[in-house]
Amino acid sequence: MNIIAVIVTHNRLALLQESVAAINQKQEIPTQIIVVNNGSTDGTTEWLSAQSSLEVITQENQGASGGFYTGIKEAYERGADWVWVMDDDTIVRPDTLSALVQSIKRMHLSYPKNPIGFLVSKAVFTDGQPHWMNLPEISRVQGGLPFNSFDEEGIVLARSASFVSLLVSRKAIAACGYPLREFFIWADDIEYTTRITRAGFLGGYVPDSVVVHKTKTNYSADLYSAQPAEAQKHFYGIRNNLYCRRLWKGEFSFWGAVFKQIIVVPFRIIKKRKDHRWLFLTINWRAATSATGFRPSNTL
């Protein structure tokens, strides 16, 4: 089984070094590790140039979305059977990959006719608690199967998941293409994995496969408590999520959501935020307006 790991990095050298070291200490090591360097300026480029065991792609900063697009495309073109995707702050455990691989085998044995699109690990914070940013969306029914069809195998069917230890099949990539690089950041993983399950592939959440998502705090994106430095991320998050609503639920639902974003959400920002209200009001309006004409391409 040819498994190629893809790590996307930008100006977080220490975390990248820890992430790479953790992968190389595993029970099961991927065939190759591709690092997509999104225009880092903190010494990452120099360090990567000295790592002969890594395949490095350096590009201008295209955001996480552009990085995952490049990395998954490269891994697919190198013949990967499975592409193991993660951010540079994802710290795997020795059995993380082997648990995913064993889950593939168990799922094939139980339902050989149902193609597997992706499997995702359980992401925890540094204290071992589930990470709020990386909770998969559990499907009630998927591919004609109840969500708990794989209880005995320790797997739960998932509709979507994050790019934090996500193992994607070659067949799913061939059928569904690559992540939308135009998203830049946020919601690219949800759109991509939902695209895969909507195409008829199974998605699975594997709690026995665990990674540490080493963010500064254990949080989920919140427009009402975000710091000013995160404002631009919320622009992309709002715009991209509105695009997904249009894609999955149609124009009527999309325009209703845009109306709510422009009219209702500002009152909530004013009520809930204690500071920087004007900044986030502006970000919110810009994002909702931008979404009306946002039409990224799904490039195969």
Describe the structure.
The chain has 8 helices and 12 strands. Helix 2 (44-49) links the parallel strand 2 (32-38) and strand 3 (55-59). The chain has 2 domains: 3-213, Spore Coat Polysaccharide Biosynthesis Protein SpsA, Chain A (Alpha-Beta Complex); 228-291. With 300 residues, the protein is of the alpha/beta class. The protein has helices spanning 13-23, 44-49, 63-77, 96-110, 170-176, 188-198, 231-272, 277-291, and strands at 3-9, 32-38, 55-59, 82-87, 90-92, 116-124, 137-138, 141-142, 145-146, 156-160, 166-169, 202-213. 41% of the residues lie in helices and 21% in strands.
Brief write-up:
With 300 residues, the chain is an alpha/beta fold. It has helices at residues 13-23, 44-49, 63-77, 96-110, 170-176, 188-198, 231-272, 277-291, and strands at residues 3-9, 32-38, 55-59, 82-87, 90-92, 116-124, 137-138, 141-142, 145-146, 156-160, 166-169, 202-213. It is built from 8 helices and 12 strands.
Number of helical segments with 4 or more residues: 8
Label the structural class: alpha/beta
CATH topology of the largest domain: Spore Coat Polysaccharide Biosynthesis Protein SpsA, Chain A
What's the overall geometry? globular
Number of domains: 2
Helix content: 40-55%
Highest CATH level, the class of the largest domain: Alpha Beta
Taking all Cα atoms into account, the compactness measure Rg is 19 Å
Straight-line N-to-C gap: 23 Å
Largest sheet: 10 strands, mixed
CATH architecture classification of the largest domain: Alpha-Beta Complex
Order of helices and strands: EHEHEHEEHEEEEEEHHEHH
Strands, count: 12
Catalogue the unreliable spans: none
**Mean pLDDT score, rounded?**
94
Beta-strand percentage? Answer: 15-25%
